[in-house]
Predict the 3D structure of the following.
Amino acid sequence: MNKFLYLHIPKTGGVAFRSVFENASRAERILHVTAPKQLLKYSHEELENYDFIHGHLNINQTTKARSHKKIATLRNPIERCISTYSFWRGLDANQGSWSKNGASRIRAAKTLGLKGLIATEEYFISKHFNNFQTRLLSGANDWETTLHEGHLLQAIENLKRIDFYAINSRLEESIDILCFKYGLFRPTRIQKLNASHYSEKIDEDVTSTLQSLNQLDLELLDWAEKNLEYQKA
């Protein structure tokens, strides 16, 4: 039986996608990684006890899970950033076991407009709106606050090496391919859980800023969309 590791990039439709793997695994054989760096403390032998591992992981944090098929989902970065902002605004910083930074992100989203939030210089906030998909898939370290073309090329190389990637805008199709490839049960209806919607009109200057901040992510998505047909084949 295949084992899977899902690199869950936040706000890419991952909760819906993840449910396919959870349906195929017993609860005691699922490892939900809430603090990504903690995964490095597990040995390869310990990770073998889990059929499904998932979390908001940097690809370099998954090296010990050598037997697991690695899966990721991508999304248009402008949509992902807006969804992230909307999601944070809907949370309560005083409820839940948030980290200090997590609670601060929620409070900032409730206090600032989207334009103000993406302009913040606080790295623990700004990194989520600045080529975040390229960051996680390239394996960039937190001290690399500015990404460049080399990170994009590494992210593309890593996408080539992982076992499967999905695209949010083609989620149903991606799940069809995944289930066929690995013999997984295909739910009749895919629920898009944990979805966030932002109803306010986005100013053109905000959209322009997000495009500038996420140029690498836009190029990464473009490559992934062009190469999705190879996975179908």
